[in-house]
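Researcher: Quick test of sequence recovery. Tokens follow.
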């Protein structure tokens, strides 16, 4: 297997509670990324496939967000229970997990049923300095 045949980018961005867009890692523990790393390590794929922590991938409303390259397959709403299936089916078998894919009309749109467009978004509250 060539080096780094696939890259899994896992959003580990954290925003304050109540943030309008939400975030993929509210607890800031990188738990999902750790699970991907462990799932790869268990299969002896540590040197061949990477599971990287990513900053915000701008799909916050569809998160937790994971994107797998080189296919650029975007997954949303990924939970701990989905890690094994993504690794087995997509990373090992080359077959994306369709049920978790972010819909095209969500991925490539300024707004969708889940996302408020920038223009009408209420600014985040100022940080309180006391
Ligand atoms: S916080 Fe994860 S995509 Fe923005
Ligand atoms: Zn959407």
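Model:
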């Amino acid at each position: 297997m060539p080096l780094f045949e696939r890259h899994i980018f896992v959003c580990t961005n954290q925003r304050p509670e109540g943030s309008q867009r939400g975030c993929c890692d509210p607890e800031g523990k990188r738990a999902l990324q750790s699970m991907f790393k462990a799932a790869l390590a268990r299969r002896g794929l540590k040197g061949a496939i990477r599971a990287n922590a990513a900053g915000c991938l701008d799909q916050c409303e569809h998160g937790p967000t994971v994107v797998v390259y080189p296919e650029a397959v975007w997954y949303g709403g990924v939970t701990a229970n989905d890690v094994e299936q993504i690794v087995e089916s997509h990373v090992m078998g080359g077959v994306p997990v369709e049920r978790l894919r972010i819909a095209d009309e969500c991925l490539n749109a300024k707004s969708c049923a889940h996302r408020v467009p920038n223009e009408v978004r209420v600014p985040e509250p100022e940080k309180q300095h006391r």
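The pocket of zinc ion (ligand 2) is lined by residues 61-62, 106, 112-115 (CB under 6 Å).
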